[in-house]
Amino acid sequence: MDQPCIGPAGKLRTCGVLAREHLKVLAGDGSWTCKIVRKNHYGRLLARCLVDNDDVAQQMVRDGWAVASTTGVRRYLPMEQEARAAGAGLWAGAFVAPLDWRQHNWHADVLGQVTPDDRLSAQLLNSAFGETPPPPTCKIKGNVNWSGKCIFHKPDGRRYDRITMEVRYGDRWFCSVAEAVASGCRETKP
Question: Same structural domain for residues 113 and 154?
């Protein structure tokens, strides 16, 4: 939710939120059907979901609000090429791939049609929300330590209140332990 991007006008935006809103409009009051495809290496179940028999992921990629996987099923790559060429959704501005953002990859390519200056490029790997968690349910703090490792802290942890969120160092909020682990973080030691 808190991944930022740069819009077509060169301004920083909360594109995680914009993508969620697009998904809400796309799905509307439709009926969801999901079929589990496989389990990934993080233990998460991956599924193909349809809303009223329309492939939701395909439409999100085609509209430019999601990117196709390069490590899993490649069926959506042609739709991504269409969105990229049309400058649709995220592609109209600048962003880093969500996987690179979650892993805070400082060497990530900036994608899209806008070439941001160095200051804005650096902000693409930060949290769009800074010190405030996106929704109240996302209170797990992901803190990057002095050696560049991400350590996560749950609200009931003994060090939680001492952790200051500093987005310039890659700190970010998580909504679940699974999300933190998938981003390459480990839990703090007791």
Answer: no
0.85 surpassed by pTM: no
Structure tokens at 3: 């991944």
Q: Which helix (H) or strand (E) element contains residue 24?
A: helix 15-27
pLDDT of residue 40: 78
Tokens for 129, please give them.
């929300």
Residue 82 and residue 28 share a domain: yes
CA distance 2 to 123: 12
Strand-pair category, 5-6 with 150-153: unpaired
Counting Cα atoms < 13 Å in the Cβ hemisphere of 171 gives: 20
pLDDT in tens, 101-150: 877 777 889 999 999 888 888 888 776 666 666 677 888 998 888 777 88
Tell me how far apart the alpha carbons of residues 62 and 79 are, in angstroms, rounded to a whole number.
5
Look-up: residue for tokens 């390519």?
109
**Backbone Cα Rg of the chain:** 17
**Dist. CA 67–CA 52, nearest whole Å:** 22
Residue among 21, 159, 190, 144 at smallest CA distance from 174? 144
Amino acid letter at 123?
Q
- Using an 8 Å Cβ cutoff, are 83 and 64 in contact? yes
Tokens at 51, concatenated: 């809303």
Is the distance from CB of 12 to CB of 117 less than 8 angstroms?
A: no
Same domain (yes/no): 30, 65? yes
